[in-house]
Amino acid sequence: MGAHISIPMYERTVGQRLAFEGERCTDCGTIAFPPKGACPDCRNDEFETVDLSGEGTIYSYTVLSPGGAPPEFAGQAQAEGRYVVAIVDLDEGPRITAQVTDVDPTEVAVGMPVSGRIRRIYEEEGIVRYGFKFVPATE
After folding, report:
1. Across the chain, which distance is largest between two alpha carbons, in Å?
2. Rounded distance between C-alpha atoms, residue 30 and residue 11, angstroms
3. How far apart, in whole angstroms, are the C-alpha atoms of residue 122 and residue 34?
4. Per the count of CB atoms within 10 A, which of 34, 40, 61, 81 is most buried?
5. Under a CB-based contact definition with an 8 Å cutoff, are residues 131 and 17 in contact?
6. Global confidence as pTM
7. Which CA distances in Å does 82 have to 64, 68, 69, 78, 101?
8. What are the residue ranges spanned by the domains of the chain?
9. Which has the minimum average pLDDT: 14-18, 25-29, 113-117, 131-135?
10. Cα separation of 1 and 30, whole Å?
């Protein structure tokens, strides 16, 4: 059984899943992505929506083999073999975790520039879930 995200929850988070939509704290200016209930720096709870570029660099990464894949990614791991999951420092400041694709896992490196893309993440109960993945940035 895979991770379950209800349809209402999925619909409420479309901006952060499909548009790199974050939020900026109205007190201290910290940018959060995905949006939080309170500012991670000053605990303020008022924000303004900001569009993020989706550009960043790899802070750290790991390569998962088919046996290490979460259940919702088992089909992908079986079809593609190993795949990369990275912690990415977005240019605007937030640090997020996402899959890196369209690259040989042996070519991924810390500090590598990457660019976010909206891609198919997995399918659950006949519903395709989309979200962001990263690809090597083109110079």
Report:
1. 47
2. 25
3. 19
4. 61
5. yes
6. 0.77
7. 5, 9, 9, 9, 11
8. 7-136
9. 14-18
10. 36
What gap in Å lies between CA 128 and CA 119, rounded to an integer? 10
| DSSP β-ladder status, 21-25 and 31-32 | antiparallel
Percent of all residues in the chain with a pLDDT value above 70, rounded to a whole number:
76
DSSP labels, the chain = ------HHHHHHTHHHHHS-EEEEETTT--EESS--SS-TTT----EEEEE---EEEEEEEEEE-GGGS-GGGHHHHHHH--EEEEEEEETTS-EEEEEE-SS-GGG--TT-EEEEEEEEEEEETTEEEEEEEEEEPP-
Q: pLDDT > 90: what percent of the chain? A: 53
Q: Name the amino acid, one letter, at 35.
A: P
